[in-house]
Amino acid sequence: MSLRALDVTDVHYVESLSPGGGRALLPPRAWYAASDAARLSLNGRWRFRLAAAADAHDDAFAAPGYDTEGWDEVRVPGHWVLQGDGAFGGPIYTNHLYPFPVDPPRVPTENPTGDHLRVFDLPGDWPPAGDGEAVLRFDGVESCARVWLNGEELGHFKGSRLAHEFAVGPLLRARGNVLAVRVHQWSAGSYLEDQDQWWLPGIFRDVTLLHRPEGCVADFFVHAGYDHRTGEGTVRVDSEVPGRVMVAELGIDIATGDAVSLPVEPWTAETPRLYDGVLATAGERVPLRIGFRTVAVEDGLLRVNGRPLLFRGVNRHEFHPTNGRALDLETMRRDVVLMKRHHINAVRTSHYPPHPAFLDLCDELGLWVVDECDLETHGFVEQEWRDNPVDDDRWTPALLDRATRMVERDKNHPSVVVWSLGNECGTGRGLTAMAAAIRARDTSRPLHYEGDPDCRDTDLYSRMYASHAEVERIGRRLDGGTLKRRQLPFILCEYAHAMGNGPGGLADYQRLFDTYERCQGGFVWEWIDHALAHPAYGYAYGGDFGEELHDGNFVCDGLVFADRTPSPGLIEYMKAIEPVRIEGDAIEGTARITNRYDFADLRGLAFTWSYEVDGEPVATGTLAVPALDPGEWVEVKLPEPPAGAAGTAETRWTIRAVLADGTAWGPPGHVMAWAQLPVSGARLTSPATGARPVRSGALITLGPAVFDARSGALRSVGEVAVAGPRLDVWRAPTDNDNGASWQPDPRYGPLWRELGLHRMQHRLDAVELLDDALVVRTRVAPAAREVGFATAYRWTSDGTRLRLTVSVVPEGDWKVPLPRLGIRLGLPGAASGDGGPVPVRWFGGGPGEAYPDTATASAIGLWHSDVDALQTPYVRPQENGARADVRWAEVGGLRVEGEPPFWFTARRWTTEQLDAAGHLTDLAPGDTVWLNLDHRQQGIGSQSCGPGPLPQYQLHADEAEFTFTFAQLPR
Q1: Which of 85, 218, 261, 953 is the most interior residue, by most CB within 10 Å?
Q2: What are the two backbone dihedrals, phi and then psi, of residue 930, each rounded to the nearest 5 degrees?
Q3: pLDDT band at 646 (very low <50, low <70, confident <90, very high)
Q4: What is the pLDDT confidence band of residue 788, given thresholds at 50, 70 and 90?
Q5: Active-site residue identified among 494, 578, 650, 879
């Protein structure tokens, strides 16, 4: 016997490959939210003791009467590392690296272990002893738990995001029940849960005591198919305990195991028709919500009710900035409502089954669900997949347990249309065994797994982060691979990595999905930033809690920010996937309306128009559009433009499709689609010329402007102080500019910095006073490099306005695109020292930020905001806030007009300060407003974990000329 084995608590189960055990552990079964049987929530405040090791304490704490004086308290559901103000350790973020030595199934001796204790009484109306049984249910514990009730051990389990139940009836007392749970942060199960998220130990989902009356419902399976040819649905409920199935609306009253067919309205994500029913056994009545639908892969396409699907989806981790993965029903409903309002129709539950109540919401409100098993072993890629559990037969029982628990829990949800074996596990015999087990239990849903390149075990060909070009090849069936794979539908289970500013190229992906029927859409990575609330940083990411090993802000890659505010990326995605396409010919006065839904007609939408002059509506009305079926289109006539509306102005139609009536997820008038049809462009105003520059001592005056005579630098326009302007090619690199270290393509952020674009030097070559102009010639270049730009600033004025024409000629061998090309200037004193708002008004793209490949959602209009509101609060500060296609902008007492339209950015810190900041709290607003007026911008792409900007969105160093006109605003 080893010395360590003496007088040490037995914790062999922690490193055991067994998924669980114990005399009271029950097999998995279907989940349901309610029944007429009694239940008691054990959520709330629990006594808590943290130890540094799994065997630090014996089991005495589980006995009734144990003295917990001096123990702390934690909230259940919850994670202990997010409670106690750091006293209980901290969270750890890694993308795929295990935060402990890889030696499966062994885990570190330093294994934080939380003892949880809850004393409870049974309610007065709880059925008496002998009247049935009772079950104790845990919906989620990370990562390994051992359970006692009233001093009797019930068992232990692993599988953090899976439900586990124990039979406890004989152990219950009327008063003073002692429930003890020992939770270990690390276990053998941790090797199966390397899922690109915070490692957060604790009892993070509900704990419930369920009364099980004699003759109660046990496991049951609702089969509800739909035949699109006949319009009939067929329902059969298989139940372990015999009973009857009743659906009053359909007049159904049948025995379990029997089937009935009759006309029904089918369930789809667009038309989530549910029929309320009841499963009644001798001892219990369980409400059913039945959705009739049939899923099949036919003729190389994934179909529901006979029609091909197009996933407009997102990947969704469960996350809350203060509660981690402990989500309440209100937060889950908010997620689904936000998705529906932004046209998202599908969710991949990355990378584990969600809280079961989330699937109820998907059934109710309508989302397609790819339900993914609680399985990822990504960290084994570091050793070329040696010892990977999914290819080791010893681990197969644990894999099968996870697959079985997912399927049994979630099998009765119509929203679940695909089972996924897991994520990034390599390949192996265990996955094949899982696929066989799922098919043996449920043949009504196809199987997904991205890591199966030959589709040996799967029914869908799935990829991550394939480029646009590769998606097109796959759509054209030119991708090669096995014959089976080439005959399968294709989805992108992850694409368009939404980390920081971006993702770019969403509309381009969507055009491919619309073009090639084999390409059945995908799931943007991902739904929400996993930024944790932090007292010093506001929001924190990997490394902010002192982790030795972490992956920084790679955990902040969502379409919504951590507080669930939509990001510009979500607004862009919403536009790219809108369910109605609106096109037209303003000259002909017609609009073409196309229904892009897969199942729904347009009867729930109303169509409006507005006629806008220089960005402001001058007339509005409605358009009569028939209730088009999916795929149908119609051409409608627009009204005559208002008389005299054009003149010298810029005019356009804006057509919108809105909800005609409120839905369960959106109010009346919610915009579902929109388009703008230009009618006339603005006539250019006369150039500001004619005034002569005059030198007087150290200054030069030209119209309203004053310049430094030595440097030619602009000092003021009227009474508005100005610093600059100078040519600017630098931006604070975005996460997508910086790219990921494993990317094979050039990562422009590091290349820009290596080239020195963040430290450009401006050499003055000449200041020339001409009869009608002031010309300043410079060369702008980085130290140690031969590349640069010969730049000329030509200033003219008509006495009131000041005109600048910038001519740029690249010199040397430029091998990389530029971040931006434009000018930067400061407006000293434009921002008050008290931090008050600095109003901004502009005519151009808005209301939100846009870049060349993220500008689909940018609408031309007259917009109002303030400088601070123009900023996008990415968790790691980076380039943000640009407005596209700007004709003119007004800020800080200055009006700027551009020819051609330009990109406009205003902020109260410099680009250098933005670049240096690690968190938003590092940015200190000054009293100078810094403006970037850009002729062009580099696209964004999604190279933080995908392809960079497409060639048409890259900014190459070419000759350019652009003009701005400045004027002081009237006071």
Answers
A1: 953
A2: -100, 125
A3: low
A4: very high
A5: 494
Render 429-495 in DSSP notation, one character per residue: HHHHHHHHHHHHH--SS-EE-TT-TT-SS-SSEEEES--HHHHHHHHTT-S---HHHHTS-EEEEEE
What b/e readout covers 637-659, taking b as 16+ CB neighbours within 10 angstroms? ebeebeeeeeeebbbbbbbbbbb
Please report the pLDDT score of residue 942 as a whole number.
98
Catalytic residue at 494?
A: yes
297 alpha-carbon distance from chain centroid: 28
Q: How many CB atoms lie within 10 A of CB 187?
A: 27
The Cα-based distances of 131 to 126, 134, 167, 176, 286 in angstroms read: 10, 10, 14, 20, 19
- Angle (CA) 145 147 148, round 5°: 160
565 CB-side CA count, 13 A? 9
End-to-end CA distance of the chain: 90
Q: What is the pLDDT of residue 6?
A: 34
Mean pLDDT of 482-510: 97
DSSP 8-state symbol, 161: T
Report the amino acid identity of residue 601. D
Residue 833, pLDDT above cutoff 70? no
pTM over 0.85: yes
Of the candidates 408, 424, 450, 572, the residue annotated as catalytic is 424
For residue 78 the two structure tokens come to 């919850």
Q: Which residues contact 801 (CB under 8 A, 6 or more apart)?
A: 688, 703, 704, 965, 966, 967
Active site residue 616: no
**3-state SS of 866-881?**
ECHHHCCCCCCCCCCC
Q: How far apart are CA 439 and CA 447, in angstroms?
A: 8
Contact (Cβ atoms closer than 8 angstroms) between residue 637 and residue 646: no
Q: Is 480 exposed, middle or buried (0-12, 13-18, 19+ CB in 10 A)?
A: exposed
- Distance from chain centroid for Cα 179: 38
- Average pLDDT, stretch 387-398? 98
Which tokens in the block code for residue 3?
Answer: 């010395």
Half-sphere exposure (CA, 13 Å, Cβ side) for 332? 22
Q: State both tokens at 834.
A: 């008290």
Q: Amino acid identity, residue 585?
A: D
- SS3 (DSSP) at 11: coil
Token readout for 905 is: 């950015």
Q: Look at residues 385, 431, 373, 394 and name the one whose alpha carbon lies nearest to residue 160.
A: 373
